[in-house]
Amino acid sequence: MASPYQRIKIFKKAVELIKKRSPELAKTAALEGGKPVVDSKIEIDRAVNGIKVAIQDVLSL
User: Fold this and answer.
1) Which sign does the torsion angle of CA 16, 17, 18, 23 carry?
2) DSSP the chain
């Protein structure tokens, strides 16, 4: 099992990668989901925020 610090490191890397690939991810999600790219960008931003919340939860353990 990963330690809290290892989990935080993994979460932070996920945030970094998602932000870096956000335009590509939004385009792919829009194509797959049949929705506007702007909506997919919002979903990606929410995902990043969810990961940041998870980081805060790990820190509070």
Assistant:
1) positive
2) ---HHHHHHHHHHHHHHHHHTHHHHHHHHHHHHTS-HHHHHHHHHHHHHHHHHHHHHHHT-
Enter the pTM of the model.
0.88
Contacts of 10 (CB under 8 A, 6+ apart): 2
**Residue 17: closest CA among 58, 40, 42, 51:** 51
Query: pLDDT tens across 15-55, in order?
Result: 999 999 999 999 999 999 999 999 999 999 999 999 999 99
Tokens read off for 47: 């995902």
- Are 48 and 19 within 8 A, CB to CB? yes
